[in-house]
Amino acid sequence: MKSLLISLSLIINSLSFAGISRPGSLDSTAVLPKKIRNATFRMMLLPTYDKYNNLGNEVGTGDAFNKVVTIIDFIDGLDNEDDKTLLKSDLAAKGYNDFDASAGSTTGQVNVSAVASVPILALGINEKLTLAVAVPYINADVKVDTGFVASSLLKEYSKTLESTKANKYDEARVKSNEAVSRKVKTSGYKSLKDERIKGVGDVKVISKYLLSNSEKVSLSMTNILTLPTGEEKDIDKLIDVPLGDGQVDAEIGFGLGYKINSTFNAYLGANYNYQFQDKTSERIPEKSDSKLTPDIDPNVERKLGNQFKTQFSLGANLSDKFSLLSGYVFQHKQADKFSGSKFSSTRYKWLSNESEQSLSSIILAAKFSTVNMYKSGSFIVPMQVGLSYGMALAGKNTSKDNTTTFDLSLFF
Fold first, then answer.
1. What is the CATH number of domain 2-57+114-143+194-411?
2. Per-domain residue ranges for the chain?
3. Are the C-beta atoms of 201 and 176 separated by less than 8 Å?
4. What tens digit of pLDDT does each residue of 204-239 get?
């Protein structure tokens, strides 16, 4: 039972809705003793307000909505051609001849507050092999807000208008304020709105095998099969929180544990996750810099990028009850690949834009175990409570928000 006292890391240490996952806690080489069962409830707080863009810069999650609107774009928002001509003529007469100048910009903000509740059941088959299954349930609140901010040039021009032209200007101003919503609607998407998304995510089936174990060194192998039980993204929603990615993953990982002394231990591990090719429905971009499009291909060949993860961590067993851990986790996902025959091959390649991902994180964790107290008869239940806090250091096309994870494990 000593492996339980040190820091029995749960086998599932990250959660992914789609794409790269944010790590929830730290891995170890520990397995369950023979015929010992483990029931764990994990709760992960996953706010998503900011992200790393394709250049690794920190931006808001709704950054894609922030687009410059030219004077001609502003005028073209009007429905009536005579009204467009009226404003164009008035602008030219007053010296505003550069119709490519900025009239302002559309703005957008997207905030997602997600909580993942993950029951995990594990069983020690023998002294070396542990099997487990994890079933995540996700509850996410999505808040969306869009608008328009006029440029100083447009504000200056508005002060020169008499009533008739001012009315047309105001109409164009209202249209610009609703530009994102109108474009979404005309492209056949569902209206942008706040909503709550909840349901079961992708189920994971795990095996962990202790390849070798000596007084100082231990080596483990982990295999994870991810099943597509979570609901995929809705291609008719411009903003969505998919609960799964719709295809099967197979992951293998190796971990090396080293006992420095009676207090400190170290861990080094690496995992590789292969995502199998499948066929899915996608909206096919018309432009390289925008995925907003009315065109749909229901038979797209898709190969999501494979993922690599490595971890280095240090643990300190302060007593037979308390332990502290800290670790660095690096994750990388290759770019996705798409192909189809309904549209040009270039348009399918645009689906891969900004699909390569990376994330570097620091995780701090604390654990409290009653196993020794239970063995001595001073506590009625053998259990472990854990709290982890993950902080993003750098990334590419991933969330940069911190993650808090709470674990409650019972052994029987």
1. 2.40.160.40
2. 2-57+114-143+194-411
3. no
4. 999 999 999 999 999 999 999 999 999 999 999 888
